[in-house]
Design a protein that fits this description.
5-stranded antiparallel β-sheet, single chain, alpha+beta
């Protein structure tokens, strides 16, 4: 039977088949040849060129399998990083896009038999974060590029600085509003004075007669006018003295007990805020890694702070593996030990002081600490969870 004519339906079908992706089970990875059907694949396996390739592979089978496995892993992870980034995606979606390339490395030539085994291997090696759901396995690429990590840390530090600036400006505005309200209340408070006379028999008289204004004042009217002016002047002077006396008494009035307690609490809060800082790392404390960027090997693991770098960073030695990591304070959190253990206060008025954990208040997210040395020995204070950590 001859070949199909050009542009005939058979010829067009053959070109479509040769151009598109065919069945993976009829592909020979060693010869990199795709067969169209089972008969063609059988004929290829019996060919002399295929037999020569098998002889070469039988001399060192691990070399070829490692090569194909490494190529498959590299291409798959590169597609996941470039196409989906750090998004969580189903592993079958990525695999379907990967095999759409006709020249891809087939999985039957690698060390993994199924896609599930390959997905689990990616999770164990720390390339991706994997989780199993009723719908199948999902993977999420872990970007460990130093430049990306540095950029993310800078963005987090800038965001934190912006939040601190906003809190500072909001606190300043609130203080200005409070001062303005207090001054307004002081200015608008009316002061009542008592009207008193020097003598009950003394009378105040005014000469309002028309004749006196026309013909001129007489002796009696002039004497009466002088007496009235003198009395009015003395009464106004007395009223001023009385008002000044009331003002002084109002200023010297003692504050109530509630006002004094509120004032003391406000001063105490201001002192604590002035002592607090936005960095809390200290040497020889135990911390827990909370970032997921380093993979499951270090996530939720504990370590000891060995050295402080630039206030916000530290060199942490992991307790389980002994590895040393350079971490930012945003990547770790404090560790709360069992009652009776030694802790170190990291922030606030008693920063840098050692104490013993006595009890935990879960409702208020704080703990009761007792100082064991120095002038504060025996004193108990309440400290928030994030302001103290276990001593190594």
């Amino acid at each position: 039977m001859g070949k199909a004519d050009f542009l005939s339906p058979k010829a067009i079908a053959n070109r479509i088949k040769s151009k598109g992706l065919q069945k993976l089970r009829w592909y020979c990875q060693m010869c990199q040849k795709q067969c169209r059907d089972e008969n063609g694949f059988k004929c290829h396996c019996m060919s002399e060129s295929h037999q020569r390739q098998l002889l070469l592979a039988s001399e060192n089978p691990n070399k070829f399998m490692d090569y194909f496995s490494d190529e498959f892993k590299s291409d798959f992870v590169e597609l996941l990083r470039r196409r989906f980034g750090t998004k969580r995606v189903h592993n079958n979606i990525v695999y379907n896009e990967y095999i759409s390339d006709r020249e891809h490395v087939h999985m039957n030539s690698t060390q993994w038999e199924t896609l599930t085994d390959f997905t689990k291997w990616l999770g164990r090696e720390g390339f991706c974060k994997v989780d199993e759901t009723p719908k199948g396995w999902y993977i999420q690429y872990i970007d460990r590029d130093p430049e990306t990590i540095r950029r993310q840390e800078e963005q987090a530090r800038k965001k934190k600085q912006d939040l601190d600036d906003e809190e500072r400006s909001a606190r300043f505005i609130e203080e200005q509003v409070r001062r303005g309200r207090d001054s307004k209340e002081t200015d608008e408070t009316p002061v009542f004075t008592e009207l008193k006379r020097e003598s009950e028999e003394e009378k105040i008289a005014f000469n309002l007669g028309a004749s006196s204004s026309v013909a001129g004042p007489s002796k009696s009217s002039s004497g009466l006018g002088a007496t009235a002016l003198k009395t009015a002047a003395s009464s106004s002077t007395k009223r001023k003295d009385t008002s000044s006396g009331l003002d002084s008494r109002a200023e010297k009035k003692k504050k109530s007990a509630l006002e004094e307690i509120m004032e003391m609490e406000e001063k105490k809060k201001q002192q604590q805020q002035s002592v607090r800082t936005d960095y809390w790392l200290q040497p020889n404390i135990v911390v827990k890694v909370v970032t997921k960027r380093l993979g499951e090997k270090y996530h939720k693991k504990k370590g000891v702070v060995m050295e402080i770098r630039d206030k916000y960073g530290a060199v942490v030695k992991m307790i389980d593996s002994g590895d040393k990591l350079k971490l930012d304070q945003n990547h770790v959190e404090t560790v709360i030990p069992a009652p009776g253990k030694q802790v170190l206060i990291l922030n606030g008025t008693y920063r840098g002081t050692e104490a013993v954990l006595e009890g935990i208040d879960e409702k208020n997210f704080s703990a009761t600490l007792m100082f064991t040395s120095g002038q504060l020995k025996g004193k108990r204070v309440g400290v928030a969870y994030e302001d103290f950590s276990k001593l190594a």
